[in-house]
Amino acid sequence: MPHPTVTNAKAPINPERLQTMMETLSSYGGKPDGSMNRQTLTAEDGRARDWLGRWFAEHGFEQSVDAIGNQFGALSLAGPNAPVVMVGSHVDSQPNGGRFDGALGVVSACEAILAVREKLAAENRLSACNFQVANWTNEEGARFQPSLLGSSVFTGAAELEWALDRIDGDGVCVRTALQAIGYAGTDTVDIPAALIELHIEGAATLFNAGETFGIFTRFWGATKYRLAFLGRQAHTGPTPMAERKDALLAAAYLMADLRAMVADHGLDLHTSVGRLEVYPNSPNIVPAEAVLFIELRSGSPDILAEAERKMKISIEQAATRAGVGFEVRSIDRRKAGSFAPGLIALAENTAQGFGETARHLDTIGGHDAVALSSVCPAVVLAVRSQDGVIHHPTELTTPQDQAFGTQVVADMLYRLACEGLEGVA
Amino acid sequence: MPHPTVTNAKAPINPERLQTMMETLSSYGGKPDGSMNRQTLTAEDGRARDWLGRWFAEHGFEQSVDAIGNQFGALSLAGPNAPVVMVGSHVDSQPNGGRFDGALGVVSACEAILAVREKLAAENRLSACNFQVANWTNEEGARFQPSLLGSSVFTGAAELEWALDRIDGDGVCVRTALQAIGYAGTDTVDIPAALIELHIEGAATLFNAGETFGIFTRFWGATKYRLAFLGRQAHTGPTPMAERKDALLAAAYLMADLRAMVADHGLDLHTSVGRLEVYPNSPNIVPAEAVLFIELRSGSPDILAEAERKMKISIEQAATRAGVGFEVRSIDRRKAGSFAPGLIALAENTAQGFGETARHLDTIGGHDAVALSSVCPAVVLAVRSQDGVIHHPTELTTPQDQAFGTQVVADMLYRLACEGLEGVA
Fold it and tell me: Which of A119, A308, B109, B387 sees the fewest Cβ atoms within 10 Å?
């Protein structure tokens, strides 16, 4: 059933068809408890991609796969040289994550474009633009770092060869993983005229406010360090405490400092260590190496820079206290910024036409549209997440809310098809 | 070449034969950089055991393997009902460990018993006792916890079925691992009349004092916790800091507290977290679970109990600060104690007969002889470790020092063979 308030849709979507697609996609890596394990370029991801490719073929979309494995499905409605509006997200998931993060954005893109095609056909109307579904490689950054890998290569922000050389925890590189599932593509796909991404909010603002729909208008910046403390392997029994060089202890000192640091910045700084690799990780060996995956996030470039300065001091202090060395293995920086005003206005106008508010939100997590926003007008639309949960098996966006978000996308696309992109994108 | 001071050995060992055995054994899991990877019940451990079994067969030792995979080689010199003196250690290693820890104790047992047999044969002398080499399963506790698993089952301190159910980090249980390498034995081996273990010191006391040989007379106790902090998985981006339940952060607080705790106890308390398992361990997920492998060690039962009391308070505080729960998954306790005075005196007298001191040492790490000491007279003899290094590829005990320790063992065995065990064991 469509969202109750939507009785005046211009290009009505088919909510049952949308749900069927969501359920089919969820079968690749999903379990009955709601958990999703479809990390990028795994066999499960390959099966999900294969399904999407079959869907493209069955619905007249032309598939392209580029060298970093981004998967596209183009529907030509306006001929070869018309502008392309790209719509999509990613089907990769976190380990033990949820079903909606990313997947909804891909499935809703398919459904919205179908709805627009059907409506244009029924009206015998020509389109001003073509459409293209996107499924970006490794948005999550769980198996390979950094996140947004596929979209960053697509925009040129990341080098292809460098990206292909990224390795996972087992030493498998992206290049090998792409080949293993048959998605080391050779197609070249152009930067689109605009990009629209529908995503679950992944926070509780809409849910707590009792609202269905929001628009991410700003994105936070992030500074990500991969930092190794380097100690010396020794027996936890006889080795005198004063002689130990415990890399994990230095990590502990730093993690406590990183958490304390947020107190100085109200709600405007997030810090985390989500992944920690310990070597050799044996109960009776003093750890020789501890690798921390650190994230600093803020909407303010000044706060982000200040946090990084403080962190550097903390790193040195932690190393000194534990008697170990350290080594920065990598640094990734993503700038804070804003999405395209024309697309924001179009989304707002469309949602309000359905009687819905369209609250402006910050996105703190990365999205592929953040990467794309450096090369084309882009926006991320949000539908509410129950209790704000994301990256967890209980992640939930109801079928009604999925349908509402998809309907907003469909009507945005319909308006772009009818009115053209001028002033919007 | 034998140790320079040994010209009056009663049962002279063959140092070249000893070195050949050490080199052969080192070929199973050893690399040119000195590193040893022969974790218990792996294919490498299986090959090392097979080699030892062939050595037993070639030298007239009768092999037995018990249900926990302990491997024995019995040499009967005194007939069926004579007391048995057991000699040995373990061939399993730490990951990326050294070649001498454990291996020397097994190889020196073989060589010492051979030397005694040869001398008794040359003298046409009867023995008062039989000898048996022991290679204990999973001394290290690296792959399966707890350590001293084989010797603890042998003494009855650990239940066989419980021990067989222990699982490694990949979910493989001891039972399956034993079957995989063909060491799920069915033999029953009796508690010996005495147990002698030669081991590298694994600390720098002898090395710094310029001494070759020492005797462990006391063993430290250890209290080992496997503790899980239980948080809630969430996105490291949007999730507000105040709402996070970060299990790894709680682990960080506790690790810092455990290190601070030793300041109250001079040199008499060692604390460590050598292994930390983080789940799901993804860079942009707030960790839901962090499992710490904690060790508290002391020669004083009072200090050990006091440290455990303090740790419990720290666990609660760390959980509260990070907003997470916790769960004690297992507790292992090993009491502090002393080795057999008769065997200590025999070792001391033997070493001094070679003009060597026989410094009394505490052993802080566990040894199989510690497990055995609850059921029979037992002792651990120590040869110096260069720079005190253990559990590291640079672990080194020179061939001369290996030979000296082996010679002390051989002469101890010779005296037991000639004089009987009365008053000694």
Answer: B387
Separation of alpha carbons B347 and B379, rounded Å: 9
- Mapped onto helix, strand or coil, the DSSP state of residue A339 is coil
Closest-CA residue of chain A to B285: A274
Q: Which residue has the tokens 């104690």?
A: B337
Confidence (pLDDT) at B5: 54
A202 → closest Cβ in B232, B238, B389: B238
In terms of pLDDT, which residue wins out, A423 or B402?
Answer: B402
- Residue A58, judged by CB atoms within 10 A of its CB (0-12, 13-18, 19+), counts as exposed
Mean pLDDT confidence for A303-323: 97
Closest CA to B276 of A253, A324, A287, A295: A287
Cβ-Cβ contacts under 8 Å for B364 (sequence gap 6 or more) = A237, A238, B203, B219, B220, B270, B297, B299
Four-point Cα dihedral B341, B347, B350, B352, nearest 10: -90
Nearest CA-CA partner of A365 in A201, A232, A120, A181:
A201
**pLDDT tens figures, B30-40:** 999 999 999 99
pLDDT tens, A177-215? 999 999 999 999 999 999 999 999 999 999 999 999 999
| C-alpha neighbours within 13 Å on the C-beta side of residue B403 | 20
Compare CB distances from B297 to A140, A202, A237 and report the shortest one's residue. A237
Using an 8 Å CB-CB cutoff, list chain B residues near A238: 201-203, 363-365, 388, 390
Query: What residues of B are in contact with residue A366 (Cβ under 8 Å)?
Result: 237
The full set of domains in chain A, from first to last, is: 15-220+336-419 (3.40.630.10), 222-334 (3.30.70.360)
**Residue ranges in chain B modelled with pLDDT below 70:** 1-5, 425
Question: Does the pTM of the predicted model rise above 0.90?
Answer: no
**Residue A247 neighbours by CB under 8 Å, 6+ apart:** A228, A229, A230, A231, A278, A279, A287, A288, A289, A290, A322, A324
Q: Which two tokens stand for residue B409?
A: 């063992």
